[in-house]
Amino acid sequence: MAGKSSKKWAGKWALVTGASAGIGLALAEELAAGGVHLVLTARRIDRLQKMAADLSAKHRVEVEAFAADLVRPEAPAEILGFTTRKGIEVELLVNNAGFGAFGYIHEIPESRMLEMIQVNCSAVVQLTRLYVPAMVERRHGDVLIVASIAGFQAVPFNSVYAATKAFDLIFAEGIAEELREFGVRVCALCPGSTTTEFQEVAQQPDRVFRSAETAEKVASVGLAGLAQGKSCVISGTKNRLMLEGERLAPRRFIAKMAAKMMRPTES
Length: 267
Ligand SMILES: NC(=O)c1ccc[n+]([C@@H]2O[C@H](COP(=O)([O-])OP(=O)(O)OC[C@H]3O[C@@H](n4cnc5c(N)ncnc54)[C@H](OP(=O)(O)O)[C@@H]3O)[C@@H](O)[C@H]2O)c1
Fold this sequence. Notes:
This protein has one domain (5-262): Rossmann fold (3-Layer(aba) Sandwich), CATH 3.40.50. 44% of the residues are buried. By secondary structure, the chain is an alpha/beta fold. The longest helix has 29 residues, at 110-138. It has nine helices and nine strands. α6 (198-202) links the parallel β7 and β8. The chain starts with 12 loop residues before the first strand and ends in a 5-residue tail after the last helix. Bound molecules: NADP nicotinamide-adenine-dinucleotide phosphate. The site of NADP nicotinamide-adenine-dinucleotide phosphate has 27 residues, from α1 and α6.
């Protein structure tokens, strides 16, 4: 049920990156519905400000909006500076912002790939490193990291993206064990295809998104998994079964199958 897990953080503050669209927006809505105060960040401040007004009016929670471009390595420290100035203690950090780029490795601009690594990986490490010390100190806090089912295998024509999501997944599962003894919980949320702006941003073909889940469903699964203390949660039964089946197959075969599905077509 939407909003049920989010009540765990009622009256506390959550920071959501990539809150202006898709899964981040759905996470913010579910958290607000559960009575959680929010810091929303992304580049499109107009969207964040509208969300802040709507969510605070509808759910009587405090909502702050802060514009930050996570391509800039300084952005995570600026976000921390903002919450510190406001006297906000972040109980739940949601590292959600991210994007993909579809195509052949030799055709995607190098700058786009390096920006992807910065937003999808470096910023996740930076924000986690900035917010976790206070959580360790007070012996409680939670971190949700939005990875992907793409992080479990090679995904040709999405190779850099899949590698960034493998990074997110392995990073989350590692620190989940490191931080457990300090009362800090970490969970990797692994969605499959989800109906958001992702496809348009990545310029990815429609066929990959035929059986996409809704962002609301994915957000709900992520928050429930984190609330239950899981270090990894996969959204969607079909996605879980697919990954389970793939574990038995040779890795090269899986990559070949993925290439067949993803290969760019004419027109
Ligand atoms: N949709 C899927 O099929 C799918 C599947 C698995 C995993 N995921 C993961 O889910 C997460 C959310 O993606 P989504 O599907 O919700 O896509 P989306 O609708 O395109 O939303 C992406 C969010 O990230 C923000 N963002 C992108 N670049 C940014 C930057 N340079 N600085 C700050 N914020 C930035 C965007 O905000 P601004 O543009 O306003 O900055 C937006 O709020 C990503 O980590 C993605 O890898 C998505």
